[in-house]
Amino acid sequence: MHKPKGSAQPPVALRRRHDVSVRQVAGFACWTVLPRGKAATRGAVYLHGGAYTSEIITQHWALIGALADAGVHVEVPLYGLTPQHTYREAYPLVIQVYRQLLERLPAAAATLAGDSAGAGLALGVARELSAAGLPQPRRIVLISPWLDLTLSQPAVQTVAPHDPWLSPAGLVEMGHAWAGGDDPAAPRLSPINSPLNGLASVSVYIGTRDIFYPDVRRLRERATAEGAPLEVTVCAGAVHVYPLTPTPEGRAAATRIVKDISQ
User: Fold this and answer.
1) Would you tell me which of 59, 77, 86, 105 could form a disulfide with 30, CB atoms 3.0–4.6 Å apart?
2) What residues form DSSP beta bridges with 205?
């Protein structure tokens, strides 16, 4: 966690293809990626993953670029990473970026999206919008969301030997750091523990070899019990954040995500 963070600069190819700019919001960088040569009719706030400690990477920018290719105005707030920063700074940042997006597009044209840790943050922020005086977006798209920082559900340990990327032990420590001394099971940190009623329609993408899969199943059960609109796409044998991977299944899922957000 204490190692230097990687570069957060968008790839040169993305800058060549789109109108890309950066500004400061609440003390953090926020990148805007706009389709070049045409007006955006849809918008999205995209929150990258990385266990709240790793910087945005090429695979994230690839999906962001695909969204811009499809005519989506994409806002990419680079929230502060742990251990230097915590969720307390991320929430006001993301809410402010979403507010600014709605100054250009209606909420009915907007999406909150993210992967892994960023997906967990996106769901948590969605719960806070009403208190901030903001409407729900058109949809919420979550790729392999980290829903429970504690990873305390026994089924997580059953999946863990089959997940080639993630380790519950390491993630729990990162979750404690992100919580900054607060209870990591609190709803703002572990949105699996908050109600789903009142949220926009939620779409989730998850693979069965992902240690977050058991908590996604739990989220689906809660949505069914509460009558909340939630759709889960499960890819058998797929790994963590599979829509970001260069695989047939990943490309198909990414294409569907771009279509759902842009149309």
Assistant:
1) 77
2) 143, 233
